[in-house]
Amino acid sequence: DFISDNEIFCDRIADLDRRLGRITCQAFTDTNGLESMFKLIHVFGGLLERSIIHNDFKQNYNIVLEQLDKEMDDAKKIFDEQMEFQQEYGSIQLNRNMPKVAGSLMWADELKQRYTLPMEQFKAIDNSINHSPDTKRVEDKYEELNELLRKFLETVLREVRYLEIKDRKDIPKTALDIYEHNDTYLAYINNLNYTVSSYNKIRETVSEVEYPLIERQVESIDQQLEKAEKTLTWATSNIGEYILQTRNKVFDLEQRLQKSKNNVQEIQNLMSTWNKTPLYERAHEKGETLLILSDLDERLNKHYREIREAGERIHILLNENKQYLEVDTNNDYWKAYVEYVDEIVTDGFYAIVQCDLDFLKKKQIQKIILIHYFKLR
């Protein structure tokens, strides 16, 4: 019958998957470097996502990550050795007959390609290991290398300027071409650094309740940044305009998000206004243990007035945040955000009550006074 035939079919498919799993693992074992590892993963493609094959093969992703980590360490070692050589001899070690500046630029480009290509290939792998702590550590090494090379290239450009001032005639054309647009490139770099700083701040500081509200805006920024990662170069037409637009877009979101956070902090500060001083006070005469109740109504009215004013201010701040985060009030995520603010307010009221109760407990008020207190409340 159909059920039996289906079971037989599924068993055969599972057996084929197990065989393919063994084949892929053996093929991976036979690879001799990151490049061949990535080629193998690319060739097998979607097959590696099949459940049985994936379970057999997934351990190999850790090996890929280990090799990538080693590649970053090797690149860092090469960089450190060259910097030591430069410190001792005044220049990095170059190929024979290679001009100093042009050779430095070429070496930096070759080193960057060496560790960037495998990193990009690794990021293209859709696997849970991409979000592991070990991957984060490798990514940090990658960013560190980028920063070191950036500073090295800035040093090379400054040297070109020095040589030009000295009216040297043997400056390589490649270096002169770069230096001719030195100020422009430095402006690009400054704007890019500013963009990176703002973008990282968004990613690192946005809370779980805030992110759904700005998710589309972040995705829009990611799409714009993807152009720089995949297609744009320094020579692309209107690259300066693109960099400036991207910077302004990221900075605008970062500033609006920060303003909304400042408003939430103000709400927290407002709710903490009354949780330090209790509503009741004790007579100041020496040895006096009674509470001052004569001006109780006045103090209650003052508290109520302050709380009403704080409530009005909180509504204003919440409306400002709706504008800062550019959300629709009918959005379910906005409703969750409002509940988040409500919890802050509720916790503030709890703290106010707790302050008064702690005061009564600490001073060991007589039972009759405690009863009178709650009647007044």
UniProtKB/TrEMBL annotation:
The lineage of its organism: Eukaryota, Metazoa, Spiralia, Gnathifera, Rotifera. One of its GO terms (cellular component) is axonemal dynein complex. It comes from the Eukaryota. GO terms for molecular function: dynein intermediate chain binding; dynein light intermediate chain binding. GO terms for biological process: microtubule-based movement. Residues 2-153 form the Dynein heavy chain tail domain. This is Dynein heavy chain tail domain-containing protein. Residues 211-313 form a coiled coil. Keywords: Coiled coil. It comes from Didymodactylos carnosus.
